[in-house]
Amino acid sequence: MPPFREGFTLVLGNRELRSLAILPMILGFVAFVLIYVLAVWLLGGWVAHLIGSAIGRLGGQFDASVLGRVLVAMALLFVSQAIYLGSATSIAAPIWDHMTKRIEILKFGAVPEATVSLSRTGLEIAMRITFAIFVSLVALSVSWILAGIIAAFIAGCLALCDLTSPAFARRRVLFPRQLVAAFRLPGALPFALVAGAFAYIPLLNLFMLPGLLSTATLMVARAHPASNGNERT
């Protein structure tokens, strides 16, 4: 099993880690709200146009502007975790990276010293955003299956990939190779299941993120320990 208790206890019991977690959570939430509202407004108008056109062909008249946006808002709930994860991990990547370094140092006394170039970091973020959008579309397309259970599991898998990425990047395991490495970690499947189970509980999925990040970091650090020559406190 993933070290959930250890990961959450580490964050809750350390003032520095709690402080580091606040800003990226806020930035991620603000970005999520903006993306969600914009998506509902734009896609809702498009869906409303489709509904109105379909009814018009049948000889009827109906203002579907509200209905279109309500339908889109409900559909996006199934991919809200993917949107939030993508927003939070991308917009505040340096802070999350620093936080995961502190977690490894506090727990193991060292972190790998490998660094990633600025250009490669930019490419990594771009590929991850594209991947998150693709996963969101897949989750949306299967959201009706088993009352959203499949979509929740997909969101959990995305959480596993995103939250292990800072620790893997320090070990030069980058996207897309990191996706395979993440699912080979001991406890990968239980982690995805738990992360997916909390994916659609409002606010709880927001507050769970630092603890899940800590847990994911511990999983990577134990599977790929830092060597003796790496950075220490």
Please write out the topology.
Blueprint: H1 4-12, H2 15-57, H3 65-77, H4 80-91, H5 93-108, E1 110-111, H6 118-141, H7 149-169, H8 177-183, H9 188-197, H10 204-223, E2 231-232
Antiparallel strand pairs: 1-2
Helix pairs in contact: 1-10, 2-3, 2-4, 2-5, 2-10, 4-6, 4-7, 5-10, 6-7, 7-8, 7-9, 7-10
Provide the succession of SSEs.
HHHHHEHHHHHE
Strand order of the largest sheet: 1-2
Show unreliable segments: none
Mean pLDDT: 81
User: What structural class should be given to the helix and strand makeup?
Assistant: mainly alpha
Strand portion, in percent?
A: under 5%
Q: Main β-sheet: number of strands, strand sense, barrel status?
A: 2 strands, antiparallel
The tally of strands reads 2
Which value, in Å, is the CA radius of gyration?
A: 20 Å
Cα distance spanning the termini: 29 Å
Task: Explain what you see.
The protein is mostly helical. The chain has one domain. The chain is 75% helix and 2% strand. The chain contains ten helices and two strands. It has helices spanning 4-12, 15-57, 65-77, 80-91, 93-108, 118-141, 149-169, 177-183, 188-197, 204-223; strands at 110-111, 231-232. A two-stranded antiparallel ribbon has the order 1-2. The mean pLDDT is 81.
